[in-house]
Write a structure and sequence with these properties.
Pantoate--beta-alanine Ligase, Chain: A,domain 2; 281 residues; 11 helices; alpha/beta
Amino acid sequence: MQIFKEIGPLKQFLRQVRIQKQTIGFVPTMGAIHEGHLNLIRAAKAENQLVIASIYVNPTQFNNPSDLEKYPRTIEKDIEQFTSVGCDVLFHPTNQEMYPKPSLLKFDFGGIDKILEGAFRPGHFSGVGLVVSKLFNIVAPDRAYFGQKDFQQFKVISQLVEELEFDLQLICVSTTREADGLAMSSRNLRLNTDDRNKALILFQSLNYAKEELLKKTDFKKIRKEVQQRCAAIDVKLEYFELADRKNLSVLDSVKEADQAVLLMAAYVGEVRLIDNMFIED
């Protein structure tokens, strides 16, 4: 695996790749690599002749300085894992390389960035839009791969690609889970043993809600039950919502959309986790 830390040499390398008519698959990450990331690499390898991943903890998408400081950084292990699944290229830039001067740009996605995650993390999706735009311009991939666990992020980036007319295809890959159902996340590394067990409440709540929704149970009743279950084990629920999968507009019933998704966020100890689940009627 070739590793680039500077934009210029990477662009020069990728120009040669395009001259050879090779397709490029791109997997942007913030590191602390787990099996979910590796599945994105595998998906990219199945559809492209060259796969490039990036590892960059983007400061502009963190509205909490403490969260940025505590975000896991395991670059040596990350390189080993990417190498093990055949990733061809890694882009691992510094802050100075990505932001040689403070950025003045702000993104507004017209509402989808203000609900759910956006309501609790103001400015988060503006930072995501900024760094993803930079990365897409640098790499210019044919396809880019993102995980379903960050489904709202995927929808925001889909809007970004559509409105700015990036010439690429976005692929959403199903969430990779531990054997007990916990969604794989870099933040899981920060959970102690007790909190790791409590974190299962997210997957359990989504499963419970899906089953009840398919039985036509009122969603407000379902949400109240989930709130009580979280409170009982001292998990701080931030939101638990049912939304239209197309535009993430919040719903009261699965009848209001052809395709729905359950989304939630909660603090387990000091660690904030998110998860979601598609509802198939």
